[in-house]
From TrEMBL:
<protein>
    <recommendedName>
        <fullName>HAT C-terminal dimerisation domain-containing protein</fullName>
    </recommendedName>
</protein>
<dbReference type="Pfam" id="PF05699">
    <property type="entry name" value="Dimer_Tnp_hAT"/>
</dbReference>
<feature type="domain" description="HAT C-terminal dimerisation">
    <location>
        <begin position="57"/>
        <end position="137"/>
    </location>
</feature>
<dbReference type="InterPro" id="IPR012337">
    <property type="entry name" value="RNaseH-like_sf"/>
</dbReference>
<dbReference type="InterPro" id="IPR008906">
    <property type="entry name" value="HATC_C_dom"/>
</dbReference>
<dbReference type="GO" id="GO:0046983">
    <property type="term" value="F:protein dimerization activity"/>
</dbReference>
Length: 137
């Protein structure tokens, strides 16, 4: 999941704000010995390092309380889209409900084509792998 989140292209200033707010860097005078260190930490936490941003975002998400059954998860994500921009993008891509049973019927149809009289010795694992590959091409 972390790799998928870090691959999302988010061009949003809120990402930087949420990442830097998760790990606060104290502001010290520029003549301090820590100036160079703070610059290096800021560059690691910046927009260019999406892996760190994804990890911080997942940690914050996992520390959230569980959602009640009566609440709408899509509304919950919509309300927190600035807090979890990468997760929000993933939810928009993955949390769609098919309106018909056509996708499952297609899988059954492909399974009927894979399992025929000439292919009776295929194991269930091989059939599952073949159907997975055919369904995701």
């Amino acid at each position: 999941m972390g790799r998928k989140l870090s691959n999302l292209d988010i061009n949003n200033s809120n990402v930087t704000e949420s990442v830097t707010s998760a790990i606060s860097i104290p502001q010290v005078p520029s003549s301090s010995i820590w100036t160079k260190f703070d610059e290096q930490v800021s560059s690691v936490l910046g927009e260019n390092n999406s892996t760190v941003g994804s990890i911080i975002e997942i940690d914050k998400y996992l520390s959230e309380n569980l959602l009640n059954r009566q609440e709408d998860p899509l509304k919950w994500y919509s309300d927190r889209q600035n807090l979890y921009p990468r997760l929000y993008e993933m939810v928009l891509r993955r949390q769609c409900v098919p309106e018909t049973s056509v996708p499952s019927e297609r899988v059954f149809s492909k399974a009927g084509l894979v399992l025929n009289a000439k292919r009776t010795r295929l194991t269930t694992d091989k059939v599952e792998t073949i159907l997975f590959i055919q369904s995701n091409l």
